[in-house]
Specification:
270 residues; mainly alpha; two-stranded antiparallel ribbon; 3% strand
């Protein structure tokens, strides 16, 4: 398992770094594909939970958020949300007419899924589109990767106190503490290493970004764990050996991208 995990990291991390460096349409379309792969896994989870799920509707609705951020930033997100709600409402009404008494629940699950993967996932795009976005995307990804890695290895080796026994029994407070320490230290180190290109990226700002990402992103992990528990599966998919599915990987990354975007903006770094 560990060998597969390391091999996947050696492939996936350089791939993402390459797209960060290239940027532009290539980066946007890459993350659109990543998010849509996550949508396909969510579709399977919803079906295992016993809900009706339309993969085309889920994919189209989710894509609207990502495409708006990438190619139509001047278009209000409210317009996209209106389109998503309308499309899913029509789907639910048709399902009810066909005798599906859970149509309202399917509507709620569809809209929630589109918001979670579409609106939240679209911050991959927003982050890279900031001024100096290649550097900020690099900062956020390196921070979350080291947080995840340190939390995983420290938790496996020394974790004794369960963070969330029912949702994610392998997560521990020791691993969480290691992740927080890794986030702060990585933020500090990156602020030093990137000083030449980001002179306004002070030490305390690096530490603050790392701290907030480390404290909040575990929510994404345990939320996806909740969906998997309800669906009765161990992993969201099998795409990435040693890791599971795309959702098992981007669960914390999406939150990190969103937090990174707002922290960079609020701290006057963009």
């Amino acid at each position: 398992m560990l060998g597969s995990r390391v091999k996947s990291i050696l492939i996936f991390v350089p791939l993402i770094l390459a797209f960060i460096a290239v940027g532009g349409v290539a980066y946007d379309l890459f993350f659109l594909i990543v998010i849509l792969l996550g949508v396909s896994e969510l579709h399977r989870l919803l079906k295992k939970m016993g809900y009706y799920s339309s993969l085309p509707v889920l994919m189209a609705s989710t894509s609207l958020f990502v495409l708006q951020r990438a190619f139509f930033p001047g278009l209000s997100t409210d317009v996209v949300l209106l389109m998503v709600i309308t499309t899913n409402a029509i789907m639910a009404l048709i399902r009810f007419e066909k005798g599906d008494n859970q149509a309202a629940l399917s509507f709620a699950m569809h809209v929630a899924g589109c918001l979670y993967l579409g609106w939240l996932g679209a911050y991959f795009i927003s982050l890279r589109h900031l001024p100096n976005g290649s550097f900020w995307a690099l900062v956020v990804f390196v921070i979350i990767w080291l947080i995840d890695m340190c939390a995983y290895f420290i938790g496996i080796r020394w974790g004794k106190h369960k963070l969330s026994p029912r949702l994610s029994p392998k997560k521990s407070w020791e691993g969480f503490a290691a992740g927080v320490a890794a986030g702060v230290l990585t933020g500090l180190l990156l602020s030093l290493l990137l000083k030449r290109w980001l002179p306004e990226f002070d030490l305390y700002k690096g530490a603050l970004i790392g701290l907030v990402i480390a404290l909040v992103t575990p929510l994404g992990d345990v939320f996806i764990s909740m969906l998997k528990r309800v669906a009765g599966v161990k992993d969201s998919g099998t795409l990435i050996p040693g890791h599971g599915g795309i959702l098992d990987r981007i669960d914390t990354w999406m939150w990190a991208a969103m937090l990174g975007y707002y922290l960079v903006t609020l701290l006057g770094l963009a």
